[in-house]
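LAB NOTEBOOK - FOLDING QUEUE
OPERATOR: T.R.
BATCH SIZE: 2
PURPOSE: Compare the predicted structure-token outputs for two unrelated chains run back to back under identical settings.
PRIORITY: normal
REVIEWER: second-year student, initials M.K.

ITEM 1
FIELD SEQUENCE / FIELD STRUCTURE:
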Amino acid sequence: MACSAFSCQPTTRLPLPVANSIPGALLFAAIIPVVGLNEALGATLMAGAIALVVGLAGWMSLVMRLIPMPIVMGMVAGVLLKFGTNMVMPLQNALLPASIMILSFFFAARYLRRIPPLVVTLVVGVLYMALSGADFSSVEFSFKMPELSRRRIPLHAFYNLRSVRWH
């Protein structure tokens, strides 16, 4: 997924064109501390298998008709609420760098057609930090190859989304 995301980004100019939904990724990230990485991966595989079976059987339209759209949108909003509020919090203490990076994103999206806006925003943010005297001495750059992990598929991890706490 990461390789195709990096290969698609220069052509599509989208940050993660092959990723799953953002609410799903946020739920996945929130469940890892509760049940562990291997269990979270197993629960994700179970959910994907169930979605595949429901989709191939043609039952997805029935499920979509049974669940009212306001309920679905409320669930998505509930997942995204904390993520959205955490994005705005840096504006309290770092209004200038946040504003510069937001403006650089919109500038790049509008005028720099060949360079993805997120890359421009990252470079502008790092340049701002370097010019403002940020200490990079403790930053360590490293590369790590992807690792295979053993997935466990316990039912408690699959049903444990109710215990996810949004701190």
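ITEM 2
FIELD SEQUENCE / FIELD STRUCTURE:
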Amino acid sequence: MTVSSFSSVSMEPPQVLVCINQSVSTGDGLKESGVFAINILSSEQQSTSNLFADPNKYEERFVNTPHTLGHNGAPLLTDSLASLECTIIEQIAIGTHWIIIGEIQNTHLNDGNPLLYYKAGYHLIQNHS
């Protein structure tokens, strides 16, 4: 799935949170597995973001996207700018969403620029020096 944002929770231990709508089936899978990965997409992965955001293309996601499995078994997208392997430490139902807090177990970094989604569109971060 594609999330519009995630946030740092703690530096020690390193923890992050994501919020996902309870109506998506991925939430149940996360609860069962107890692990997830956050793949921070590069500026060249807009089509990947759109593919993972489309609920009608669930079966196509990993068939058409180069990936490996991380140490925790969660999928790591090969061309991502960064990947964070996490263990779920808390999953809270709030209104229409799940707040999922994960502790980062492993990180993977690549060179490139981040994909930025802002005001309903994709943008590039530009240096104005």
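REVIEWER COMMENT (ITEM 2): The radius of gyration is 15 Å.
FOLLOW-UP: none requested
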